[in-house]
Amino acid sequence: xxxxxxxxxxxxxxxxxxxxxxxxxxxxxxxxxxxxxxxxxxxxxxxxxxxxxxxxxxxxxxxxxxxxxxxxxxxxxxxxxxxxxxxxxxxxxxxxxxxxxxxxxxxxxxxxxxxxxxxxxxxxxxxxxxxxxxxxxxxxxxxxxxxxxxxxxxxxxxxxxxxxxxxxxxxxxxxxxxxxxxxxxxxxxxxxxxxxxxxxxxxxxxxxxxxxxxxxxxxxxxxxxxxxxxxxxxxxxxxxxxxxxxxxxxxxxxxxxxxxxxxxxxxxxxxxxxxxxxxxxxxxxxxxxxxxxxxxxxxxxxxxxxxxxxxxxxxxxxxxxxxxxxxxxxxxxxxxxxxxxxxxxxxxxxxxxxxxxxxxxxxxxxxxxxxxxxxxxxxxxxxxxxxxxxxxxxxxxxxxxxxxxxxxxxxxxxxxxxxxxxxxxxxxxxxxxxxxxxxxxxxxxxxxxxxxxxxxxxxxxxxxxxxxxxxxxxxxxxxxxxxxxxxxxxxxxxxxxxxxxxxxxxxxxxxxxxxxxxxxxxxxxxxxxxxxxxxxxxxxxxxxxxxxxxxxxxxxxxxx
Length: 560
Description:
Layout: H1 2-46, H2 57-79, H3 83-87, H4 99-124, H5 133-167, H6 185-205, E1 215-217, E2 228-230, H7 237-257, H8 261-281, H9 284-300, H10 306-330, H11 340-365, H12 374-399, H13 409-431, H14 441-449, H15 462-489, H16 498-506, H17 516-538, H18 552-558
Antiparallel strand pairs: 1-2
Helix pairs in contact: 1-6, 2-5, 4-5, 4-15, 4-17, 5-17, 6-8, 6-17, 7-8, 7-9, 7-10, 7-16, 8-10, 8-11, 9-10, 9-16, 10-11, 10-12, 13-14, 13-15, 15-16, 15-17, 16-17
């Protein structure tokens, strides 16, 4: 009897050691995968967002090779019995009773096939004598690379679901389910990219990073209300603003719905810089898209979390306004504050407002926060409204509101110029409505259809540009891609599709789709939303008592 008991204890000890080793391996692999996703996004962002074709050949080759290796690995695993999924007796992404995971996997797979379809469409378009052969070749290469990146993300989700299936059937040495495995890798990668994107953009504003067209300085109120606009590595303020909106809504989403304390903490830290970058770009279209995202977000959030959503949104404003004030004061050539005494006073006040916003955002992410009484809750909500209103009013009075007033002549002139361009683009589309004119159609043909003087080399609408280059067939493929990505992101909750929707909405009025980074971010947001849905469907796993003394970072990484 004693021998049997001793053998059982030894067996349990061995199982515990194996479980801990497996857990460490999963952690290391997850960190490497998150760093890899972040590196791809950061490298593309640093290279002008892959706007110019010559800047993206290396990325296209890298993504294509990785996608081919991933596809080959999937085929080998299927022949060997399905790998991890086969060991658990289930197909990857086909877990019984998990309709959300199945839908997101199907939609992401359909998105990858639509990208391949667009790549093949541009390749076949070479037979129809496009306006530029090199343009069609570049577009075919781009869409093939996009499909490979989407395939990698979808594979990551499939592996994560298979691991969740296996780990849910096992227990550790103390009889507790393995802790929070696997990790939300894509979400971590997006947070690392967000840190780099907003950090480098703010560094450019303060003059710590210099480069061509990273800043736009002008005295023309039609272009800038403050005299300076942030363009960043993308070298275009409006697209940087659009990406900042998507990243900001992602931070709000994490603050309201994520079960990971580390993701919520990072969301609280990054929300204010994201809004700061958005304001410094002075992008009117991005600002309207943000407003359009706040209201649907309030409606899509569960009723019990609606006040929390409003609180997170409003408490982001004071800190961002304070940061914008600091940025305007220290912008080279600016003369908002002249005297040193006034400068120091303003800095102290702005730091105070920024600090209060940061503290209250951190208060929002505390999982251990007790529910306040009704009076305290509504008084806190009133304070949010007053401070947010005062901060916004001070920013408008300091930076000038003419550019943001739709009734001003400058705003009307810009709008009329866009409408004239869209009209000319529509006329060009009607000349070849089925298959389009081929890649770079507007750049090559705008002189033939231009009715008014403007110098835009892009048509400033991603959907109209697709009608010009790919006709109705290309547009249908693009529309199908957008729909499948929205469905994949909204599989767990409609709120999860908010970042994807903001990118798709702003692309209707600007050149965002010309950036390779736009598509990589769009796919990453859709996959990360599906990943959050997986975590929420699996439930929250908290650290057992034995893990609570092993370091704050380890506990928060392991907790979903």
